[in-house]
Write a structure and sequence with these properties.
heterotrimer; A mainly alpha (301); B alpha/beta (232); C mainly alpha (362); A: 301 residues; mainly alpha; two-stranded antiparallel ribbon; 12 helices; globular; B: 2 domains; 9 helices
Amino acid sequence: MSAFLVITFSGIALGAIYFLAASGLSLIYGLMDVLNFAHGLFMTIGAYLGWEIATRLPSSFGAPALITLAIVGATLGGAVAAGITELVLIRPLYGKPISQILVTIGLDLAAVGLLMGGFGSTALQIPVPLWLIEPTRIGSMFLPNANFLALGAGVVVLVVLEWFLARTRYGIIIRAGVENREMVRALGIDVGRAFTLVFVIGGAMAGLAGILYAVVFSGDLISPTQGDSLLIFAFIVVVIGGLGSIRGSAVAALVVGLLQDYTSFYIGGHSGWAQIGNLSTVLLLAVVLEWRPRGLFGRVV
Amino acid sequence: MTDAVAVSDLHVSIAGSHILQGVSFNVPTGGVTALLGRNGVGKTTTLRAILGLVASSGQIQVLGHDVENWPTHRIVRLGIGYVPEDRDVFSALTVEQNLRLAESSAAARYDDVFSLFPELKQRARQRAGTLSGGQQQMLSIARALLNDRPLLLVDEPSKGLAPKLVSEFASVLERAAEHSTVLLVEQNLGVVKRLADHVVVLDHGEVVHRGGAGDLDDPALVRRLLGVAGAA
Amino acid sequence: MRTWVSRHVGVVIGAVALTLFAVVPFVGVHVAWVLPGTLDIVNSTGTLEVLALCFMFAGVAVGYDLMFGFTGLMSLGPVLYFATGTYVFDIALTRWAWPLWPALLLTFGVSLVLAVVLGAIALRVHGIAFAMVTLAFAQAFFYLIESNPHNLTAGDTGLALSYTRLPSFLSGAVSNTRSLYWLALAFLVVAYAVVWLVSESVTGHVFVAIRENERRLDVLGIRPYRFKLISFVVSSLIATGGGVIYILVIGTAVPSVVASTTVTLSILIMVVLGGAGTRWGAVVGAMVYIYLQQFLDKVSAQPSFTTLPAFLRVPLSEPQFLLGAIFVLFVLFAPGGIAGQVGRFRAWRRVRALTVDASVDQ
């Protein structure tokens, strides 16, 4: 029973990271019809920037301050990378959705290649404070502190994002734009600015997801292709949740994270079944598409 | 005084079909100019071209500015209120949020709009998607009137509505036309006769008639141009 | 005569190129700088192998063009069917010691079933969701191969092909590189012919109509779904053929090389670089891509390269960076790819010829 709860908690934490990775993707698609292939790159850039910060700053700052700065830096780095991408590569291609996808694919390949050239393709280690590695005891269970960090980040981002979309003018513009971009323009609003903003927000969440995934689930290791593998799960979450829906992403991320953790814990131990966690998420995707092609919360796609 | 809108030799092609083939007309400042024609002759496309929502070639002058190749939001900010054909309210947003989105300055006239349509005030927190068709049209018109716009582009405000509402919207537009120029696309001849000062008739992507509203009193002309009986 | 040639300039160029490529194995010319290093003799084993890869990818790319360029379906999962070709064929020959023909039959049978079933599911969604779903399926297949189920695929170690049950002319010995070269060329010809026939048929015209405006077909009472599935399946089977050629030429299947998303992206880039929806563009795109990849790889391995300053050496030593950057520039500044540029040039020449004629008339 206790193992079950620990696995559940870890699945929820994984779901929180998937939510961070997927919600920006979903929002970008919903508003702009762009499949942003470079979203994985933003995660990777966040992780590497975090690594630079955590390893380059003097250790006299103390491990907790360093990891905090690294996480903040990763978030900002993802945001800046995404903003530049939108302005330089996406904007000249408005109205050409296929070209926009292609340009993000090219960017992803080129930049990952550059990261490999600059940092090598072997994994790098982010130094983290001890408490992040230790578990917290609740009753008879030991829950990893890193999982709390992921869960906390996921919840905070969900709440802030919901507030932003419901209450602020730009949030309302984004929601209106997801529904009918043209009419937003016809009200005299420059949708282009909302596009850049959505990219920046999505990039920030991707950067955050990138470093948190490294710290929480991959033993503090980062590699140039980590974001791209995470991106696949973000795609799965986005399609299951419904393109353009934040709440859909949140629910789907949770379901996918839990499913992956349960299957790899309870089935993945048997020989030849090691990849069942990853496979089960794709199987879930196939089932959802058969049953409800628009996803859990989505409009018609 | 200059025209509020002057269009000359306007061409629009959508997905390979040539929708507008050299449309030229002008909308004098003040009063209501009605853009008429059978279904599918390009009236809505003409409004959308003026707003820069479809790619077009030709000259378009709006409120004294040459606006070809301008982005839509810049054209609109010259002072246009737009009521689109299918209302296009944002169904996921509340009535209040729909209005807030349209607000272009602190001088937004919420009081005026709510006194025109008290129902909108009562339903301010309701999601626009759950409103009736008539209420959605109220919201769509309210959005256009919220800011003091010198030019209103109104596309079939009476479409699919009960006669009582049609006449209510007609009087709202009549009052709006006292200080704004209105370019009105409308199928309901009764409404057109009541509001219009000038008429422009389109057929097959070209302007086939221009004149005063009085021309609509000639049933033969109306039948020839619009293919409908003159009495409405 | 002159008019026939100018009207069928593509056919002529294609026939000439095919003939030239077919006799390459007999030509022992030394060409410096084409491929630095050991590959600069035209009929050396290394060069023939690279060219065989070019033909193989050209065939796969033209098959992908049928689905992406003609039908407008942006699948991000062609690698799944490519890897099916490589692995099922490899497993049948190596693990089960099947003879050639049954192994081929099994390979294409498995690919057909996978393409029909997975295509039917993925085509329930449109546009971008379709791209995401096909990508997810392909990634699942990658995980499956990597996990070495029942010790069939050998996982990350890679599965070397056993040539014992193959006819001697394909037996993988260096002297047989020529036969493999011709086999790859033949595959390209067959793939091209299939795509030509399908795209010029009534079915092919429906594909183009789907790409242009799917809704309009619904209005006409044609159900696009079945046609999209046909396009998907034909394209996938061609990819499977490419996978078989790959394992014959290279001799080893490694998941990260034959089954990862990188392969999909390469195919997509080849088609876009050459010009989607033109057939020959995909072929040229694939040749250029593979050649560039090999060339850049060789250049960065040159000893003199290490003397470059880091800000030049690091980006230039990564073919992936350069190919990605070239691709971005093409998408931004040369939409329509190489074929689009050629088309623009020919249109410009035609206009110029007309104006010259007109001025002569006066």
